[in-house]
């Protein structure tokens, strides 16, 4: 285990120096090769390429494109108007609408940053005009953005499923109820603050006459059909997740044409952003797959299994508790994609022999890691929302962390009641 300690130490040291994850992982992997001169260097290229040849992985850039195209085609404004019409009549209505719109947008984008940067700008502008404090608007926007990777289609689920050889469809179905629970917990906390806090009682209501509210429903149906197309085609056995992503891409383009928002320039810009983001994911994934091969060769998963077995004994709940604490801490320092790519091949092989459902564990890991997107010191969504809303990062952080109890509460429920994750996959896939 000395070798493992050295390469992990090198990896963490480089991270603390501010070097990007992909280069930190790559340097640690090269250090291992130098320490093992008998291993041919071709092993690195073979392992780095093998993971990228997965057919399932093609779905990831597809869902990336759909999320960006929804912002380009003006879908975000329609979803927000629908959300305001449904829940704006309650005190703090625009905050409720913020959370609800994020849930709806998550069913198309699968990305927290796309929510924070695209939908977030529209949400914060509307809340500011209604008289809400900029800090409060930014806080709920950052907090609700984490729903993106939990509610399908989720890019992180595609990555985890591809690495761990878990059915992506199972992960998609498994994320529906936890995502709704997480969004509902946030809205419940907003309602409590509106009743029991002095500031909350000053929040306005945004009442829309029912005749006007009903008119927003037809506007919201075409965008929401994206979710139906993806999940329905998979559930009906018509498409694989990868093919469903392609269908969703064409639907997003059709919406852009119908709404007269799509131009050749905007389409090219959306493609550029998609390729750039997908390229980063692919590079990290290729390097992480080689790093995972190294730690497997060195016996880390087996050692981790023995250690967790000693700490948790026969208690699966205690096992989940220990792993969740680790995930929450790591999520504070690494972006969700990098953390999932690094942890999945190390931790999953260690816990599955203990009788834990891999889909359940993967969803708990994803939820715990994405919570780190709004926790300091490196909460990515905090910086995105602060930049978009022109609010200091410190103030966004303070406000966003007020929703942490609701998130932890939802996460604990998912751990205690695995049926929240496993029920839908069993019903729909059977």
Apparent shape: globular
| Low-confidence blocks of residues | none
Multimeric state: single chain
Instruction: Give the SSE string.
Output: HHHHHHHHHHHHHHHHHHHHH
Query: How many domains?
Result: 2
Describe the protein in words.
This protein is mainly alpha-helical and 430 residues long. The protein folds into 2 domains: 1-39, no CATH class; 56-429, no CATH class. It has 21 helices and no strands. It has helices at 2-16, 21-35, 42-50, 59-72, 75-87, 93-109, 112-129, 134-145, 155-164, 168-196, 210-235, 241-258, 264-297, 300-312, 316-331, 336-351, 358-371, 380-389, 393-400, 404-416, 419-429. Helix 9 runs parallel beside helix 16 (336-351). The chain is globular and about 75 Å long.
Ordered list of secondary-structure elements with their pairings:
Blueprint: H1 2-16, H2 21-35, H3 42-50, H4 59-72, H5 75-87, H6 93-109, H7 112-129, H8 134-145, H9 155-164, H10 168-196, H11 210-235, H12 241-258, H13 264-297, H14 300-312, H15 316-331, H16 336-351, H17 358-371, H18 380-389, H19 393-400, H20 404-416, H21 419-429
How would you summarize what this structure contains?
With about 425 residues, the chain is mostly helical. Helices cover about 75% and strands about 0% of the residues. The protein has 21 helices and no strands.
Protein traits:
mainly alpha, 2 domains, globular
